[in-house]
Structure formats: C-alpha cells, structure tokens
Amino acid sequence: MNILILGGGGVVGQKLAQSLAQRGHLRGQEITRMTLADIVDPVPVEAPFPVETTTCDIADPASVATSIDADTDVIYLLAAIVSAHAEEDFDTGYRINMTGTINVLERARALGTKPVVVFTSSLAVFGGEVPDPITDHTFLNPQTSYGTQKAIGELLVNDYSRKGFIDGRGFRLPTISVRPGKPNRAASSFMSSILREPLNGQEAICPVEDDFLHYYLSPRKCVENLIKGAELAEDDVGMNRNMMMPGKIWSVRQLIDAMTAVAGAEPAKLIRFEAQPDIQRIVKGWRYDQAPEKSLKLGLTADDSFEDNIRYYLEDDKPAA
Amino acid sequence: MNILILGGGGVVGQKLAQSLAQRGHLRGQEITRMTLADIVDPVPVEAPFPVETTTCDIADPASVATSIDADTDVIYLLAAIVSAHAEEDFDTGYRINMTGTINVLERARALGTKPVVVFTSSLAVFGGEVPDPITDHTFLNPQTSYGTQKAIGELLVNDYSRKGFIDGRGFRLPTISVRPGKPNRAASSFMSSILREPLNGQEAICPVEDDFLHYYLSPRKCVENLIKGAELAEDDVGMNRNMMMPGKIWSVRQLIDAMTAVAGAEPAKLIRFEAQPDIQRIVKGWRYDQAPEKSLKLGLTADDSFEDNIRYYLEDDKPAA
C-alpha cells in the first residue's frame, strides 16, 4: 500500500500522515510507502515504513507526473488555495483548485491504474436559495470562487470514477476547529484563531457576532473520517462519490463557553469582537444546517461536544510554553 | 444591440438567428448587428440588419477573441459536442464543452464589458440517486461526461456572473423534438428521427420501448424561451443563474400517436423497434420528471401538445417534396 498525500504539508495532511504512520495499514493492507507532497517541501513524519517528502505544484502537469506513479495506490488530494485567497485572486484560485485537480485526475487516467482518490471538498459548495436543511440531494450553489472550484472538483471526481479512471470519493469538510498553527487566508480562519490564540495566551479578533452559527469538526475526527473514507467499499459510495463529512452546529458563544469550561475563564478575556464586513459577506453565505445522512450511514462521525475539540487541541497541538 | 451566436450553424442557432432577424430587437433595443459563428462557417440568415458569419473554434482562445468584441452585447453560447460523442471521445468532450466554455467566459472577463451570456445546459445534468421530481434545488449528478461538462459550465456561469464579469443565464434544454436535419451523435437523436424520417417518407429505428418516457420541447418554443431568457432582468434570475427550461413528459407511444393524429396512419408504419443497449444505457439515466418552477414563474413556456410539435415541424422544416 503506497500512499500519496498532495497537500501533505498542511495541517490536515500532516495529521493524516501521522495517523497513517501510527496505524501502519490502510484498506486491509500494510502501508509500505508514503509520500508527502506540497508546494513547499513538507515536514517529514516518523513512520515504520519509508516516508518521502517532495515538492509538487499541482498546477503543473509535469510536477504532478513526478509525484504520482503507477504504483501509487491511494492519493489524498488535499492541496488547495483557501477561500478568501481564491476570492481575491481569481486566476490563482482556478489554477490551483480547478486545473490542479484536473491535472491529478488526468495523471491517474494516463497511468490506467485506477488509484483510490480521496478528494477534500468543502461546505462552501452550498449557498444561494436552496432550502434548509442541506441534504445529500441539495443543489450546489456556491457563492465563492473557492466553493465553485470545489464543486467542479466533485463533478470531475464523479465523472472520472464513473469512467473507471479512478476510484474516487470526496468529502465536504466542515470548518476544522481548533486548527493549530497560524491564521491563514481562509475566511473561516477566525473560527480557530478566537480559541487557539487565547489558549496560547494571545489576543484574537472575532469578526462576527457571538450568535454566528456554523458547522464544525475537530482535526482529529477529520483525519479519522478521511481514513474511513479511503476504506469505504466502492459500491457503497454510490452514484455520487461526494458527501458531506459529519460535523456539529455551534454558535461562537458555544465555542467560547466550551473553551472556558475546559481551560478556565482567562482565555475568553483575550477575544475582541470587531465586525469585518468582507469576512462576514463570505461566511454568512455558507450553510451550516447540514443533514449528512449518507456519510453517517457509512460510519463517518462528528465530535461529541466542542469541549472535546478544545481538549484535542490542548493534547495534540498546543505549543509547549 | 450586437448579438453573437456561438453554435450559430446548428439547428437551434439557425432558428434563433431567423427569429431574431424577424423580431429586429432584443432587451428593448434595436438589433444593429448579428454574428453567427460555428466550427464551420454557418449558413447566413436574411435580416434587416448586417449579419456576419464566421468560423470559430471555441476550444481555441485566439479564435474566441476574434469572435467576441468589446461591443458584443449578448452572447448565445450554444456550441457543444453532443452527448454520445462526448461519451465516446473523452478528450474532445472536455476540450469543447468545458475548456471552450471557459475560453468564452475568460474572453468576456478580459474585455470587462459584462455581456449578457445565454448558456445552454441540458437535462443531462440530472441523474443518480436523487428523488423525483427534479426541482430547482435538486443536486446535479450527471451520469455522462456531457452532463458533467454542462454542469461545470453552469457553475462557471454562476461564478463569473457573481463576480460581475458577465450577466449570465443558463437554460437546461429538454430534448428538442422534432429536430430538423439529419441524425447526429446525440444519444437523443432517435427522439426526433422516429418522427422526422417517417414524416419525410423514410424508415427510422427506435432503440427503446414505446413506453419510454422523456421530457420534450419543440425547436420553436425553445427559441422563444432563449429570447425570453436573454430579456430576463438580472435581479429576477437570482443566485442560481441556471434553470430548467420548461418541457412536457411524453412516451414514445404518445409521440407516435401525435404524428398519426396530425399526418395520418402511414408514417408510423415506417418505424422499426430495435433495442440498442448503448443508447438505452445513456438515455435511461436521464431524468424526465422535471418541475421547472423557476422558469415557469419567469414566463418561459412549454408546448401545449405534441401535435403542436409535429405541426411546427411540418410548417417550419419539412423539406419540399
């Protein structure tokens, strides 16, 4: 079992790699090799099998060709330009998120080896005038270029799978929180930073009101689901290879209260509310009322409480003082 | 008002051009120029204003750039590789139907003139495990590459419209019948030829059973709707620029009975039923139970009876004996 993680330098890619390294097997087979590829050479992970790190620009077909071999069994396609970045830079968003996805699928098709491709989509594919709750059969009407690019990726994963070029499965990620590391250009960046920075003793700005509702999943659960996602039987995935990954709806107030319940009253005092219309315009177009029936039926799971999400951050990610 | 019809040599493109020529105005303005562009130089139409014909390969950005000027007000994007052709030739399908659409949208974006773009999608965007009836909020799960390419076009029309690069509106065409001319490589080709050929005294093969249900519209109504579609106010189109064009559900038996009612008993005797599994596999994956609430509300209409469709063919298209 030879695994490639495109976007292997990112938060989810690194955690996925660590989890696969600890696990040692996937889809009933021992893992014999893993490659982490990203636009900058990823941090390697320790594993009982060889782990290679490499740079790969998915927008460049030649670069993709050097990363995906005929003996690549499973490809995690996590690499992407995030939402606010894709909204600001139209060309780069399409180049990475659409053309990059096409390059990966085309490489798999050219090899003729039908690898498993696990594609990460996003709840940003939903928007517009569709009624709540969002079901497995709800129209994708993204209100960002990022969401559009992910929706196109979903369609391509379906078509390349239907044609037998890949065995694809796509998962629309809820917003991942508490995400470790630094703020990024995702419009959802604050949904981690209002917790992470205060837990690390730093100030944070919340650009929305505290009754803002959204749909969340911890990094730990996300990785569990991505591993389960690779292991689903092809026949069970059905005619739409893409599905919402389970999450839970919480308000900003509930996130903060969970932090206080786990870590005491001090961190919450470091949050300053400061409305940011640009961010609000994007995130208020997202849809949080999700009914991910299919993925729940297939055994994927959400967190039990946001207190768990806070604890996972403290256990897995909080920098040593 | 300067109009460009990409796909102006096709059946719908030609009829649209003739109708616009007779009409003389669009969106409240006098038509001052019309260009018919296609992969081979289209047949010109008579009009009280200048009509240019030109070759354009939409897969080639330079070719697209010569067809779309800063003074192009309305672009009808009808050019496409049809369903069975796109299913057989994966690369050509994506090159014309996806990359071609991108080239047109990118040209409009580069000009910065925000033309009205009327995009023709297809009911082939629907399929898979979604429940009936198909509504304006039903998930697009195409089961052909053609449907996938059209669904991607819809997403792009939405995103380029949302960004203000175009004023887009897309219409998913029912199967157009009775389509004049010759059979083509569309899987739906027989849905006209089992009527057209017998009406012209020729034999025809029906590759499905006579209880096969499908969703139809006459060319005359389709053109009416495409003109109304260009004239809709941008605000009325809403956050999803794409909608099903109204049609009606009929069985093959009902089509044949309508032909007999209008043209007598002889034509039906020229139809031979001969099952074709390749065609059946495609057309049985299409969804006919459509509830096009939005387009009906916006004033688009279907035919009253299939007898009308037969009469329109006899009036508009039947070759002189």
Percentage of β-strand residues of chain A: 15-25%
Number of strands of chain A: 14
Order of helices and strands of chain A: EHEEEEHEHHEHEEHEEHHEEHEHHH
CATH architecture of one domain in chain A: 3-Layer(aba) Sandwich
Q: Spell out the CATH superfamily of one domain in chain A.
A: NAD(P)-binding Rossmann-like Domain
- Order of strands across the main sheet of chain A: 5-4-1-6-7-8-12
Largest interface, with counts of residues having CB < 8 Å to the other chain, equals:
A-B, 27 and 27 residues
Supply the helix-strand structural class of chain A: alpha/beta
CATH class of one domain in chain A: Alpha Beta
Task: Provide a descriptive summary of the structure in words.
The structure is a homodimer of 321-residue chains. Chain A has 321 residues and is an alpha/beta fold. Chain A starts with a strand and ends in a 5-residue tail after the last helix. Chain A is built from twelve helices and 14 strands. In chain A, β7, α5 and β8 form a beta-alpha-beta unit. The first copy, chain A, has a seven-stranded parallel β-sheet with strand order 5-4-1-6-7-8-12, sandwiched between helices. Chain A has a three-stranded mixed β-sheet with strand order 9-11-13. Chain A has a domain of 200 residues: Rossmann fold (3-Layer(aba) Sandwich). Chain A is 40% helix and 18% strand. The model of chain A has no long low-confidence stretch (mean pLDDT 96). The interface between A and B is medium-sized, with 27 and 27 residues.
Question: Which secondary structure elements does this structure contain, and how are they paired or packed?
Answer:
The structure is a homodimer.
Chain A: E1 2-6, H1 11-23, E2 25-26, E3 29-30, E4 33-38, E5 51-55, H2 61-67, E6 74-77, H3 83-88, H4 90-111, E7 116-122, H5 145-162, E8 167-173, E9 175-176, H6 190-199, E10 204-206, E11 213-217, H7 219-231, H8 234-237, E12 242-244, E13 248-251, H9 252-263, E14 271-273, H10 277-283, H11 293-297, H12 306-316
Helix pairs in contact in A: 1-7, 4-5, 6-9, 9-12
